[in-house]
């Protein structure tokens, strides 16, 4: 199950920031589970994790509550959550009990959101970074990370509410909604993945192209969603390897690989499901490009 994934959205032509908007609303926040004992396990698990790792920080995150497609535009439906609730729901050993029963009669997308209504489901992100010598960058995670230590992943992390000054829905309601949704939030979806690549790989932001949004993948294990982007870097892989040694977030990984696109498939078994989904979104993008040619 850890390698299984579900594609929630594929945009093989790649979308620019002007084509992506965000609807931030309390209606996309997590709903408490009716089982009070299950709800109480959230605090218990968090407290146990903090005891083992004093460096844990309960930061705000955007909660994935679905999306709406009006081609060629996509609107993210986002609520607010935090890392503590993520650890206590999605990463809970009893995480499957947080899932609501599938209703079956709704569309696949609506039923998916309904099923995950009691989980934190913070929206993660990942980047398929292509070097100037046409290789794809992949990281091996260190043992210092909370999820999938030692696995191979694309660089990524999370868009951050606090980067755009959001700490609660009170702030959201105090601003012009159109200004908040269309400028700050949608841009954070793209700015955040550039930050992650710069911090994890060590390349200057000026060497990176504007990201293109290519879709959303969800890991079956822990129902973990992630938005994926395609980015070109104008440096060769040998230059990037030299910069990686001084990357700001180098502690999160132990090795950088520059892989030929044709060899990515051989690494799939060593990737978490959501990143395997990212690989599939990249393949769909390449197929779309071939069809255009």
UniProtKB/TrEMBL annotation:
GO terms for molecular function: GDP-mannose hydrolase activity; metal ion binding. The keyword Ion transport does not apply. Its cofactor is Mg(2+). Keywords: Hydrolase, Magnesium, Metal-binding. InterPro entries: NUDIX_hydrolase-like_dom_sf, NUDIX_hydrolase_dom, NUDT22/NUDT9-like. It comes from the Eukaryota. Residues 120-287 form the Nudix hydrolase domain. This is Nudix hydrolase. Gene3D superfamilies: Nucleoside Triphosphate Pyrophosphohydrolase. The keyword Magnesium applies.
């Amino acid at each position: 199950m850890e390698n299984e994934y579900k594609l929630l959205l594929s945009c093989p032509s790649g979308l620019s920031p002007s084509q992506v908007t965000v609807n931030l609303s309390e209606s996309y926040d997590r709903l408490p589970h009716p089982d009070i004992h299950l709800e109480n396990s959230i605090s218990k698990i968090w407290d146990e994790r903090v005891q083992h790792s004093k460096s844990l920080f309960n930061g705000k995150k955007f909660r994935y509550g679905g999306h709406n497609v009006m081609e060629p535009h996509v609107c993210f439906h986002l609520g607010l959550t935090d890392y503590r609730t993520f650890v206590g729901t999605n990463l809970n050993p009893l995480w499957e009990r947080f899932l609501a029963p599938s209703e079956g009669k709704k569309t696949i997308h609506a039923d998916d959101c309904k099923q995950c209504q009691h989980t934190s489901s913070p929206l993660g992100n990942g980047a398929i970074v292509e070097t100037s010598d046409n290789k794809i960058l992949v990281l091996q995670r260190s043992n210092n990370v909370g999820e999938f230590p030692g696995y191979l992943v694309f660089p990524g992390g999370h868009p951050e509410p606090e980067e755009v000054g959001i700490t609660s829905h009170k702030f959201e309601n105090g601003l012009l909604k159109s200004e908040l949704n269309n400028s700050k939030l949608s841009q954070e979806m793209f700015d955040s993945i550039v930050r992650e690549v710069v911090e994890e790989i060590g390349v200057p932001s000026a060497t990176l192209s504007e990201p293109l949004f290519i879709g959303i993948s969800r890991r079956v294990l822990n129902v973990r969603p992630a938005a994926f982007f395609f980015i070109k870097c104008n440096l060769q892989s040998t230059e990037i390897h030299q910069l990686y040694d001084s990357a700001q977030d180098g502690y999160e990984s132990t090795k950088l690989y520059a892989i030929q696109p044709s060899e990515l498939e051989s690494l799939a078994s060593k990737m978490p499901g959501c990143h395997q989904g990212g690989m599939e979104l990249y393949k769909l993008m390449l197929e779309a490009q071939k069809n255009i040619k």
